[in-house]
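seq:
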Amino acid sequence: MRHLLPLHYIDTVARSGSIRRAADKLAITSTALNRRILAMEEELGVPLFERLPRGVRLSTAGELMIQHIRSQIADMERVRSQIADLSGVRRGHVSIVCGQAILPHFISEQIALYRKEHTAVTFSVNVCDRKEAIEQLTSFDADIAVVFEPFRTAEFHPVGRVEQPLRAIMSANHPLAKKEKLGWSDLLSTPVVLPTTSSGMRFILDDAMLRKGDELQKIIESDNFDFIKNYLEHEHCISFQLPIGLKAGDEIVSREIEERAVPGGNLFVAQLKGRILPVAAALFANSVVKELEIRYAKPVEVISK
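struct:
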């Protein structure tokens, strides 16, 4: 929409941190873009950006303005999605952020199922940690977050929640693979590859170590599950994963962990509080919550808006 073009310009400059880089993305000259920004600042009576030697950053007024701008852009996308829905042809774009465990199997399966019925809907999917999830929602970079043990703030609005116990993962020839369930002493007996401190699983594990007064034998720390899974084939060590991140046929094996050793956590499907999602995003979020309910054979706690 042409009337949103100035807002789109400001948003692009804010995300780029540079008028020149933003101009390249917008396919206009940096002089023309700067002129449009100056005109908007003159109209408002305050600078939206601080001019720095190597770029720009939002001023205090700009920080206030950018939230309004992103809200306006998101609302227009929602309205366009609703208008398209009137014709019976569901269109739109769904932006998702999710944790490492949810990405490879669960989210890919859910998108594929959704697109079988709604082929005109497109998706963007990005990995984030438990803190970044709320940042992506509040900046309108994401419509939906599917995250294990996220940071909870006033802006974070869960629409569904399901419990997820941590599982220990290892190669099939690891000595602990012979046991059906592992206790705390089992976890202490072997080297471990830990997820990074920014992850929800690490939050649960750190809390368990604090309560027990013991430290696991950390040999490696990584935020890449593919690396972790492959490394388990090279050394007798274990790592951790959520049930939703495991798939039959994986070369690694998983074992239950006693609840008293490492308690489980919660997987959330969430959106920005107070935001009305576009039709496509709202329906996808609902389908994800329903699938979680089916998969884990018990009702997912659906949280009303």
